[in-house]
Design goal:
Family: Belongs to the thioredoxin family.
Helix content: 25-40%
Keywords: Cytoplasm, Disulfide bond, Metal-binding, Redox-active center, Zinc
GO molecular function, one term: zinc ion binding
Strand content: 15-25%
Radius of gyration: 14 Å
Number of strands: 5
Structural class: alpha/beta
Shape: globular
Largest sheet: 5 strands, mixed
Protein name: Thioredoxin domain-containing protein 17
Subcellular location: Cytoplasm
Strand order of the largest sheet: 1-3-2-4-5
Order of helices and strands: EHEHEHHEEH
């Protein structure tokens, strides 16, 4: 059903995207701030969204790959030149953000906390 993966940093993200099977299951990326020593993200919005997203994924009955992407430390993320912000495949403005790979659909910020919007993001793919 749902395959959950975790990757860290832009280089791992690029490496992973290069290996995506175009005929495989849909791939969604969840971009989040890195975890601190206490196990919580430095990004409070990410901390708020993560349990909602994880619960939703446990209930999902679809064949998808869901990838948690650690964008790094706060200082790195805040840089205008952060590749997650500047790369044409991501163009992140805020975190958390969920992107459907090779699609235009995305959820940004507090939208990631909304179960109805999560449902719509996954339903759009029914072929």
């Amino acid at each position: 059903m749902v395959t959950i993966l975790k990757i860290k940093g832009f280089e791992e993200f690029v490496s992973f995207t290069d290996s995506i099977d175009p005929n495989g299951p849909i791939v969604l990326f969840y971009f989040t701030g890195s975890k601190m020593e206490n196990g919580k993200s430095w990004c409070p919005d990410c901390e708020e969204a993560e349990p909602i997203v994880k619960t939703f994924l446990t209930e999902l009955k679809k064949n998808v790959t869901f990838v948690f992407v650690d964008v790094g430390e706060r200082e790195y993320w805040k840089e205008k030149t952060c590749p997650f912000r500047t790369d044409s495949r991501t163009r992140l403005m805020v975190i958390p953000t969920i992107i459907k790979w090779k699609g235009v659909q995305r959820l940004e910020g507090s939208q990631c906390n909304n179960r109805d919007l999560l449902q719509m993001l996954f339903e759009d793919d029914d072929d």
